[in-house]
């Protein structure tokens, strides 16, 4: 009888809503530059101004102030840490340095399931998933050696939309 109770309790707990992690790896949304550097144990370093400009949105609502190498399985990336105008971590973009972009898309499908949105054209593929309090997206532009693939992590709830 007791075993049945623990089994049912564990089953029930598995289906309870979990608080969103609202983070990426060793970071938490809202961290300062110094906090991200400390959390990365010094691996995240300041990006040069020309790289920061290339990795930041054109409206300069966010700036890529730090970067770090990152690997997961067969995939090697450069992680760019974007900070809002208030100096808080607001997005992490992983630019694929080596590994098959199509296998990466498959790996994200395996981890997050069916995408919330999917858009394919002759030039680009994009997918979006919602994972807890975060949005995970992938953008693949082109094929072959000249292609660019980026995985983005950002919070779904921000100061701009929290009251909506």
Q: What fraction strand?
A: 35-45%
Distance between the termini: 48 Å
Sheet with the most strands, sense and barrel status? 8 strands, antiparallel
Helix content: 10-25%
Mean pLDDT: 85
Order of helices and strands: HEEHEHEEEHEEEE
Task: Describe the global form.
Answer: globular
Count of discrete domains: 1
H/I helix tally: 4
Tell me how many strands there are. Answer: 10
Going across the major beta sheet, what is the strand order? 3-4-5-6-10-9-8-7
Radius of gyration from the CA trace? 18 Å
Assign the structural class, choosing from mainly alpha, mainly beta, alpha/beta, alpha+beta, or little secondary structure.
Answer: alpha+beta
Unreliable segments of 5+ consecutive residues = 1-21
Could you walk me through the main structural features you see in this protein, from its secondary elements to its overall organization?
With 164 residues, the chain is α+β, with helices and mostly antiparallel strands. It has one domain (20-155). 24% of the residues lie in helices and 40% in strands. The chain contains four helices and ten strands, in the order H-E-E-H-E-H-E-E-E-H-E-E-E-E. The protein has helices at residues 2-14, 33-39, 49-55, 101-112, and strands at 23-24, 27-28, 45-46, 62-72, 75-84, 89-98, 117-120, 124-131, 134-141, 148-155. The strands form two sheets. The chain has an eight-stranded antiparallel β-sheet with strand order 3-4-5-6-10-9-8-7, sandwiched between helices. A hairpin with a 2-residue loop joins strand 8 (124-131) and strand 9 (134-141). The longest helix has 13 residues, at 2-14. The N and C termini lie far apart (48 Å). Residues 1-21 have low confidence and may be disordered.
